[in-house]
């Protein structure tokens, strides 16, 4: 039996910060650098809009309006803390300065 009437299942293919984090844990998984940069810049622009509206970068998790933004900020705070401890170097100093998370 097939589907009738043109019914389709809608699938959301956007990457959440959690999905990205899980993919990054896969050994030998390589991101296309341009995709990662585009995603970061998109979230950064959303953060600037949030800051303009609320006067700060304290995005709640969960943030119902844009859940990915809350996860973006949370993830960056974790990465910043790890960078300060010398655990990783995934965030550049420029990214830290731009987001105001540091």
UniProtKB/TrEMBL annotation:
Signal peptide: none annotated. InterPro entries: Helicase_assoc (IPR005114). Gene3D superfamilies: 6.10.140.530. It comes from the Eukaryota. Residues 40-98 form the Helicase-associated domain. This is Helicase-associated domain-containing protein. It comes from Ditylum brightwellii.
């Amino acid at each position: 039996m097939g589907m009738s009437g043109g019914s389709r299942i809608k699938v959301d293919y956007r990457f959440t910060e959690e999905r990205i984090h899980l993919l990054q844990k896969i050994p030998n998984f390589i991101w296309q650098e341009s995709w990662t940069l585009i995603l970061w810049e998109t979230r950064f622009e959303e953060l600037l809009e949030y800051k303009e509206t609320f006067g700060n970068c304290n995005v709640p998790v969960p943030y119902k309006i844009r859940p990915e933004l809350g996860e973006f900020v949370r993830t960056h705070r974790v990465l910043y803390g790890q960078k300060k401890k010398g655990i990783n170097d995934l965030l550049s100093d420029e990214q830290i300065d731009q987001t105001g998370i540091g």
